Each structure stands twice: as structure tokens, then as C-alpha cells.
Amino acid sequence: MRRLMVALGGALVLAAPVAQADVVGLGASVNYWNSDLTGNVRDGGDFVDVDNELNLDEDSSANAALYVEHPIPILPNVRLAYTQVEQSGQGVLTADFGGVNFSGINARSDLDLDQFDVTLYYEILDNWVNLDLGVTARDLSAELVVQDTVGAGLKNTTTIDGVIPMGYLAARFDLPFTGVSVGGEGNFIKFDGDSLRDFNVYGQYEISLLQLRAGYRQMAVDYEDGDDQLDVEMDGPFVSAGLSF
């Protein structure tokens, strides 16, 4: 992991002199992400399908982002982003999950996921083609609670908590004189067989200070630690409104 962070940091330093903002810029946005969760999870026992067995399909989502760009050479620009996803469901579970034997028991599942990103990046291109390159530190916290609904006292809680370094790339193509643009941005890391990616593509319309976006976002995690495995994907459309100064 240390070698990966050094490599990402080196790429960021090499990119630093390419482009800088002429003035201080500030932007903020909020969005709603209608996400579906698919895949499998194992907590020291059997594999469990999060869609077909846990039926995690009732979701709510809160997302926000803030960025600051400046004309100071060498120093990177800063982007902060927060994502909160809550999903719940109920189904019949037949599995040994986390040392708890759910043998055909009606179970309720609740997933709470919070992540906070701090991204340092440079503008490589800044005209009708915009390109940003940087690194992200992602503080990821997730909790999955599975418990019976019949009073049998069966319950398991699986947690993930850590800070993950990731690469950051964003590109946008502006259609001159229209206020319309298309683009995409993403974070990614792959190390020692594990991987995490989080990307979105969008169309944007800008009028005065207001930016309106609609697009598609996908986040995928492939993680293995002994008998604990997580191979899930969360994706779906999103809409966003923001202000840029």
C-alpha cells in the first residue's frame, strides 16, 4: 500500500506545473442517487446474495460535494465529497452468516454506508476540454445488520471501517456557447487482488451560476480477508444541482 501511495503522489507532483486556475473558484453541489445493490458477502461462513436473499432494495441516499480552486502554483486544488447510503430489506435466509445459523429464518437486513473523500488535484487542461488528475483519501464506514424477525434472538453485525488511498481522474467536454457539457469522474484503486472503483458519467447544463446534472454512477468493491469476502456493486442514475462561483 505504501508503494501505491508513493506512486500516486509522484504522478500528482509531475502533473502539478501543467495548469492552474486564473482566479479563486468555489463550487458546491447536492445530488440524489437512486442506487441498486447486487453481489455477495461472506462473514466467516456461507456466501449470501445481498439482492436475492437479503433483499436490500429499499434505499435512501444523500450526497454533497464542495471544491476550491486557486491560482497558487504547486499547491493542489481541494475537493470534499460526502456519500451516505441506507438500504434495508427482508427475506428468508438460509445460511451460516458471521457464526449465526439462519436456517430458513425470516430476517431483516439494514445497511448503512458513509464515506467522506478528501481529494487533492491539479487541472491538467482548462478550456473547452477540462482534465483533472489527483489523489483521494476516502474515509469509508459501513455496517450491515442481519437479524431475525420472529424473536429467536439471531443477529449478526458486520462492519467495515478504514481510510483508503485512491487515484482521481475527472474529464469534461464543453460544447461552446451552449452551456451544455458531458463528462465523467472517478476514483479507483487495485492492490494485492483487492479493488475499489467509483465512477460516474453525466450530462450537464449550466446557466449563470447554476449547474444541473443528470447521469449514472457505479461503485464496486472486491475485497477478501481470509474467510471474509465482499464482492458487491452499487449503481444507478443520479441527479444533481450545484452552484459555481
From TrEMBL:
<protein>
    <submittedName>
        <fullName>TIGR04219 family outer membrane beta-barrel protein</fullName>
    </submittedName>
</protein>
<feature type="signal peptide">
    <location>
        <begin position="1"/>
        <end position="21"/>
    </location>
</feature>
<keyword id="KW-0732">Signal</keyword>
<dbReference type="InterPro" id="IPR026387">
    <property type="entry name" value="OMP_w_GlyGly"/>
</dbReference>
